[in-house]
Write a structure and sequence with these properties.
Largest sheet: none
Number of helices: 4
Distance between the termini: 70 Å
Order of helices and strands: HHHH
Amino acid sequence: MRIEAYNQVTQVYNSSRTAMAKGADSVKKRDEVQISRKGRDYQVAKQAVAEAPDIREDRVIQVRNRMASGNYKVDNGDFAAKLLEKYEAYC
């Protein structure tokens, strides 16, 4: 077996492969993405949630005033139910 012949075949193969790749690059196509209405609605909702404050100051002031005046009452059953609900979510 002659090594030179193998090298020549490899060179011919590589040159034709790069020529095909260059020819494919000459056709310029643009990628296009279409987002569904549901996807756009999801993005709008996600952005609205991200922009919303973590603490609702108006609600905090309202509860703080009710506590200061002694009018803020918490039902023990409701409190226990919420506590169990949160506990079950972590388990």
